[in-house]
Structure formats: structure tokens, C-alpha cells
Amino acid sequence: MLNENEYGKIIILNGTPRSGKSSIALSIQNTFEGVWMNLGVDQFMQMTPDRFQPGIGLRPGGERPDLEPLVNTMYQAMYEAIAAFSRSGLNVVMDVGHHEGYSVPLGILHKCTKILEGFPVWFVGVRCPIDVVMERRIKTWNGDYNNDSTVPKPVALWQKFVHVPGIYDIEVDTSLHSSKECAQLIRRRLEDAQSAKAFEYIRKMMSQ
């Protein structure tokens, strides 16, 4: 039985699609000391049957209320899995897009902070300006602006909701730094004397 000091570290990268989370996670896996397991939205979506897609990757907007109970369950299962890996002494990096832009409030982030209470978890905000996100969406997915040159509603909603309440242990901006540079900024945050408190603050704030 491990004591708390022997738990694996947990890094949660939170941001919009195409903000650069996956690249940072890969850099962490390739450069950080020890074994870092990658558990995140992409992995859970790959496990999800087609008829329940996008599953845990459901975007803001409340357009699929039929999937929301499943999304709630999947998030809790994902965090329980992270806790199990950490208890086994394995480090975990995960990329997510937490939001509360559902048809009804689900309180998912609050529930997840409770699951990881007492664990060594760093909550990282992965920022990226919306014009850079659009450039990447166009390049990767052949997406585009609306005919009137405005940002598509789903992209705008991601940008609006994903960083609420905006409490992090560290924030990085992938328009200013490469994935490797962001990973090194996160590494320095893990190594400094200030303990990770974001999840504790969010848990207490949302419990009031």
C-alpha cells in the first residue's frame, strides 16, 4: 500500500480543441522523468461506440441532451481510472476540455475534483487565441470561418466556456510557446516549492 508521497503525479491539461494539449502531453511523456501514462478525452472517445459519439468530447451548446448523463458518467469513470493509476505509482497526463455548456448544469469539474481529493494533481490551463485555433482547425480539419467571416458558433462556445472558472496551478499559451517549451514550463512548476492548489480551491468554491 502506497502512502500519499508515493502516488504518481497527475497533470491535467485543460483547453479547447486545437489548443495544443495533445502535443504538450506527448512532450511530457517523452521528456519527463519516469513513466507518464496518457489518459484523456481522445483515448475515451476511441473506446466509445459510434452510436454514443462524441461521448466525453461533447462540445458546449446543449445540442445532445440525450448524451449528457453518459458524459457525466464517463468523466467520473475517467477520473476514477486516473486515481487508480496514481495509487499504483504511475504518473498520469491527461488532456480534457472541461465545460459546463450543457443543456442543464452537470457540475462535472466539481465532481472530478472530489475524486482526486488528496492526490498530487496539477491543473494546467492551455490557452490559445481563437484566431490561432481557427488557423489550426482550417489546416487540420479543413474547417473555415462562416460566410460572413465570423467564427463558427461551436468554436466560439468552446472559447467561452472551457476556462471557467479559470483557476489553475499554471497557464501556458501555445501561440507564444512550442509544445516542448510549454512542457518545460510545467516541469518547472512541478519542481517549485509551491504546492498544487487549483483543484482544492475549485472544490471548496463549488461546494459553497
TrEMBL record:
Q: Is Methyltransferase set as a keyword in this record?
A: no
Has the keyword Thylakoid been applied to this entry? Answer: no
Instruction: Please list the residues that make up the active site.
Output: D42
Species source reads Gracilibacillus thailandensis
Residues engaged in binding ATP: G15, T16, P17, R18, S19, G20, K21, S22
Q: Please give the InterPro entries that the UniProt record associates with this protein.
A: CPT, P-loop_NTPase
High-level lineage: Bacteria, Bacillati, Bacillota, Bacilli, Bacillales
- The identity of this protein, by name, is Chloramphenicol phosphotransferase
What are the GO MF terms of this UniProt record?
Answer: ATP binding; transferase activity
Q: Which UniProt keywords apply?
A: Transferase
Q: Which SUPFAM superfamilies match?
A: P-loop containing nucleoside triphosphate hydrolases (SSF52540)
